[in-house]
Amino acid sequence: SIVWKDVLFAYALLAAFAFVAHAAARWNSHKLRLALLAGAAIFTSLAVLTRQNGALVLPCAAVGVAAPAWLAQGPRKAIAYGLGFLTVGGALCLGANALLQLRASKALGPIEQIEDLQLWDIAGMLKQRPDLALTVLERDAPKVAQALRENGPKLYTPAMHDPLTNIPAIHSRVIPSVIPVRRQWLTLVLAHPILYLSVRARDFSWLLFNGHPDKCLTYTVGVMGPKAEMKLLGLSYRYDARDAWLVDNYGNPLIGTPVFWHPTFALIGIVAFIMLLWRRKPTDIVIAAMLAAAALYAASYFVIGIACQYRYLLAVDTSALAALLYTSMDWRAFRQLSHA
To answer: What is the pLDDT of residues 49-80, one digit of tens each?
Structure first.
């Protein structure tokens, strides 16, 4: 599951906006339009449920729905369709999440992840400023403060939070120290915003530019994982000749090239976004909204990113490729527009 959820998010995002684009192209057919928008709502909800920050997709999809309504039926209908899509999509997300929670474990997963992020940020700030005061932790969670002071500067790395948060001195105290860590993190961010932003900028640069493939996982093949979880899922370990071929002939040769470099696709997306807003056909605006959703999703990792693995920004790559395919299918229209 370390990879599939990011792949699922990326392609659920594409599917959602593909449904909206087809609805925009067939706006005059009432029944078909509603059926396509229903499909868009389902895939938008799937994207939101797959990743917490996937919630940024929903308002962008609503804009994509409102745009063709505005062009075809005016602003009042656009507002109605946009708000309606937000409402339906939000209801689907909340309902599906409530059902999933009936089968979920009672572990405080999201809370622990947020605390891991905050501990990582504090360690990054301590690496730059070892004399930084940890007054809140020293008062309310002194052992965590001591562990951070002793281990934070030497174990912090922009690659991931695990080397720090997995040590027993911190990992064993994660749940009891949730509130003190949160307060300490907020105190430091408010008191030293430039220091915080510099730490986050370095973390995000490792993720965006993928300049350390030896430390940041670019791809993975095969089926592998902890034995207990594999057995529970009925899966068997697999790394066979197919996987070896992919590594030797596709994966490793492309590491360090523009094929495995997010800025390549970000540039494609920016150019496509400008071209689409320049022409402004109903489907153009939908595809532009898709690119905006991917960009907002990627930007959110500046604040919440906890590792530099390539998979986190896969949606940037796939949405740019989809936009490139879309614009290339109607290239003559852009040429005619440039000559007009």
So the answer is: 999 899 999 999 999 999 999 999 999 999 99
Three-state secondary structure call for residue 223: strand
Local structure of residue 222 (DSSP, 8 states): S
What 8-state DSSP symbol labels residue 248?
A: I
pLDDT at 2 (0 to 100): 64
Q: At what angle do helices 57-73 and 75-101 cross, to 10 degrees?
A: 150
Q: Which residues contact 104 (CB under 8 A, 6 or more apart)?
A: none
- CB burial of 222-236 (b: ≥16 within 10 Å; e: otherwise) equals eeeeeeeeeeeeeee
pLDDT at 102: 86
- What is the Cα Rg of the chain in Å? 23
Cα-Cα-Cα-Cα dihedral of 199, 205, 210, 214, to 10°?
-20
Rounded Cα distance, 37 and 25, in Å: 12
| C-alpha of 132 from chain center | 31
| pTM given for the model | 0.92
Cα(36)–Cα(57) distance, integer angstroms: 17
Q: Is 234 left (phi over 0), alpha (psi -120 to 50) or beta?
A: left
Q: What would the two tokens of residue 118 be?
A: 């905050």
Which residues of the chain carry a pLDDT beneath 50?
none
